[in-house]
Amino acid sequence: MSSLLPPTPPGASPVTPPTRPVIDYRLPSPLPRALVVCDFDYSLIDADSDEWAITLGGTRPDAEVAMTRMAARHRDGENWVHLVNEEIAGLFESKALADVTALRNLLATIPMHRGTVALLHDLHARNVDVIVVSDANTFFIESILESYGVRHCVRDIITNQSRVVRSVSGHDLLEIAPLQTKPSAPINGSGKLVAANCPRQRCNWNLCKSAQLAEYLSSRIQYDRVFYVGDGYNDLCPLALGLVDCAFVRADRRLHRELFAVESVENLVAELAVGMPVRQGYSCRANTNTVVRDGDREPWYVAQTRVPCAAVLWSTGDELQARVVRELERV
After folding, report:
1. Is 84 a member of any domain?
2. Superkingdom of the source (predicted)?
3. Which listed site, 8, 61, 196, 224, has its alpha carbon 20 to 30 Å from 309?
4. CA nearest 182: which of 215, 207, 148?
5. The pTM is what?
6. Does 318 show up as a binding residue in the annotation?
7. CB 239 within 8 A of CB 232
8. Is 41 tagged catalytic?
9. What digits encode the pLDDT tens for the residues 280-308?
10. Could you tell me which residues are beta bridge partners of residue 166?
11. How far is CA 65 from CA 41, 97, 106, 192, in A?
């Protein structure tokens, strides 16, 4: 602006450029931004999608034999994703599944509670971001969400990859591949191949949910609150690493039992000392080492010592919907 002013005559005081008044054009602050992270099997749906597909929804004559055989091979060190890929390929080859459309129609019969469907619609209406982090695969998850009309309610899906291909014999095949790369050697001293990016060195090598969630959070907008819906052992990792403010834990399943497992405070501290800071807002009550939400009195809040976040129990989709919404509306 000073370049547009007339030159200052000799001996005269320089002209001070006019100052523009400061006007705050910012809109009022929006509501706190929340992210809801969901496991899929036995969390958003009331079944295991791998088992449902492999057993043809329980109608396969040798279903129990097939699942027992897969479990034994998995215990011997084979990756579960590869085993599922092999079984699905066999179903296509034997014509037990006629084509990919038949598989999609089968997946559409998996039960999802009406309360869970309503919750996803409600979160979408509230502009709450929802992502799925699961050890299933893209085809299973997207097919099921689309069948219940809630695919648009989920912003992103982080899971094992899948694609439809044509076999040499001209049949449709669903090719399923691990999300993460297989490590060249065990890294946790137990002989078990674990995810190379797992801070706790406990997750299966194809997917560490804490590593994937940490990467997602670092690449997105800043969320004020992060909620997590889960039921299984691999859901413990993101909770233990302090990435979550409040976990919605399905009652009487593995994650619920893990929260009451005996684990020393020293081990918990060691798990947290990996450069992933505990999110603020939830604290440990003095002299108890019990992580709770300050001021909460509802019976579904779990007093537990395992993870540095609040834990809320739920059993049905209706309970999940009511408790997630209640937590969202807390000021």
Report:
1. no
2. Eukaryota
3. 196
4. 207
5. 0.81
6. no
7. no
8. yes
9. 433 322 223 344 444 445 778 888 878 89
10. 172
11. 21, 18, 20, 25
Could you tell me if 162 and 152 are in contact, meaning their C-beta atoms sit under 8 angstroms apart?
Answer: no
270: pLDDT strictly greater than 80: no
Question: Per the domain annotation, does 324 fall within a domain?
Answer: yes
Considering the domain boundaries, does residue 106 fall inside one?
Answer: no
CATH number for the domain spanning 150: value is 3.40.50.1000
Q: Is residue 278 one of the residues assigned to a domain?
A: yes
Catalytic: which of 24, 39, 62, 235?
39
Which of 24, 41, 224, 318 is labelled catalytic? 41
Overall domain count for the chain: 1
Range of the domain at 128: 25-47+112-161+181-328
Evaluate if residue 161 carries a pLDDT over 90: yes
Per-position DSSP letters for 305-316, written without gaps between them: SSSSSEEEEE-S
pLDDT digits (tens, 9 = 90+) for 166-182: 877 777 789 999 998 88
160: which 2 tokens? 């094992």
* Higher per-residue pLDDT: 264 or 246: 246
Q: Is 252 annotated as a binding residue?
A: no
Is 48 a known ligand-binding residue?
no
What's 216's DSSP letter?
Answer: H
